[in-house]
Structure formats: structure tokens, C-alpha cells
Amino acid sequence: MNARSHNRIIEWTEQELLPQLAIRSEHPGEPIRVDRYPQHSKLLGAGNYAAVFVPSSDDMDQYAVKVYAPGREGWEEEVEVYRRIGDHPAYSCCFHAAETNGVKYLVLRRLSGKTLYNCILEGELIPERAISDIDEALDYARSRGLHPHDVHGKNVMVSGGRGLVVDISDFLKVEPCMMWDDLKRAYTRIYKPFLSKRPVAIPEWVMNSVRRGYRFIRSSSKS
């Protein structure tokens, strides 16, 4: 990645992606809706705040562009989180952040891999080294004055046997979050003894039931 490629992805974002993009926020607690985006691009995913796109061009596929939906907050906070994180192998990094015609976006280094959630769904091995990598990455974030938050199976990845943290947008929140500790506990007590030697695909309905049960238990403990 160099200055020329940085300029190309910014130009693509502002001249092709944003003018042809239609995203909207229907409810603060639900993922945003992506109604339209350029033909020569790919939607990687949409969360509660923003959607992430990559260009189809091979010489720019190392980048990801995160576009915030109108009315959704958090862009400024995410820019600050990336500023503090700097360059770390377990995280993406932010090359550019701007607001164009009222639309806020970030140009990020694209992370490739498979989320822990998808590893379980597809019966792919989750190596212990990946868990250790994520643990170390979260400790690094704390050393930078951040507070790891919302770290769960869909926000962390395995890539080449190593662990990556995908979403750090909530790392300025100061309230305690036990998601990662709970996931590690499940990995140690359930995954390692029963699934690590011979991983099997787990149906999505089972995963959804576990997720709903976890939310119920956590909300009950808070109340």
C-alpha cells in the first residue's frame, strides 16, 4: 500500500461509491438497510451503524470502506479508536477518514479470514493460538487507553491460524463488557474438550438458540 493506491481508493469512494450508494437507518437497535450500491463493488456486511464495501478492482481489494448511515453516531469515536490503536497486526488501520456531502466514511485496511461464529457453523478448527492473539490484542488496546467492548464471535476472526479483532468501534465505551471473557470460558470448557479434536458443523438454529439464551442470562444478571 502506498500513497498512489491510497489516493485511488479515496477517489473511488468519493466519485463512484458514495454517489451510487443508498443506505438508511430504520431503527437504532437494528442493522442499517443497504438499498443500492455500485455494480463494481462488494458489500462485506452491514451493522447497526455502518456498511462496509470493497471495490471489485484487484489492485484495490486490500482496502475496505466503512460508510456510516445518515443519523447514526459513532464516526468520530471510531476515528479516535483507530488513532490510538495505530498499526497492530491483529487490527485493521485507518488510512483516511472524511465527510463528503454529509456522508461520513473511513478507508481501512481490509482484514481477511473467517469469524469464530462462522468457524463453528462450518466445523472449522479454532486454534488456541488465535484465542491467545485476540487476548494479547485486547490487552494492547487497554494499554492505549481503550476499553474492549462488544468483542464476540462475529467480531473476531481466524486468519492463517492467527486471531484478528474486526470491529473496534465501541472501544471508547467505559462500561464493563463480559462478552469476550464469556466466549473464552465457553472455548475452554466446551470447545476444547468436545470439538477441537474433531470439529463438526453446528446448525445455525442451535447457534441462534445459544445466542438468545446468553442474552437472556446476561440481561437477567444485570437486573
TrEMBL record:
Keywords: Kinase, Transferase. The keyword Transcription does not apply. Residues 38-223 form the Protein kinase domain. It comes from the Bacteria. The keyword Repressor does not apply. One of its GO terms (molecular function) is protein kinase activity. InterPro entries: Kinase-like_dom_sf, Meiotic_Drive_Suppr_Kinase, Prot_kinase_dom. This is Protein kinase-like protein. It comes from Paenibacillus cellulosilyticus.
